[in-house]
Amino acid sequence: MENVILIVHLLLALALIGVVLMQRSEGGGLGMGGGGGGVMSARGAATALGKVTWFLAAAFICTSLVLTILAAADSSGSSIMDRLTPGGASEDDGAAPGGIDTDSLLPPPSAGDAGDGDAPLVPRAD
Question: Structure pTM?
């Protein structure tokens, strides 16, 4: 459902951009200049484009609000910091100040490593 609303939202945004660019500016419009003959006069075209712009803008705002409500409903209400460590380790448990467990970030020790980090790595003579 959220994907459908998002697609409609994007189509409304593109249509709104197109309608705004077609409107007449003070210096003339993009392709809207010309004679006044025909069914729609220059004033009628401006009024119709204005109404379409208002409709598209209102629909765009409505889809924005619906997407915001759906995103708020999908959020779990917890902080992303709570999800960084699986057990919720505190700083006393050896975790870094940001709540990140640094032991899980380090690569596993190699086969020739004695395991203590203070000793220099010297190749063994076999």
Answer: 0.50
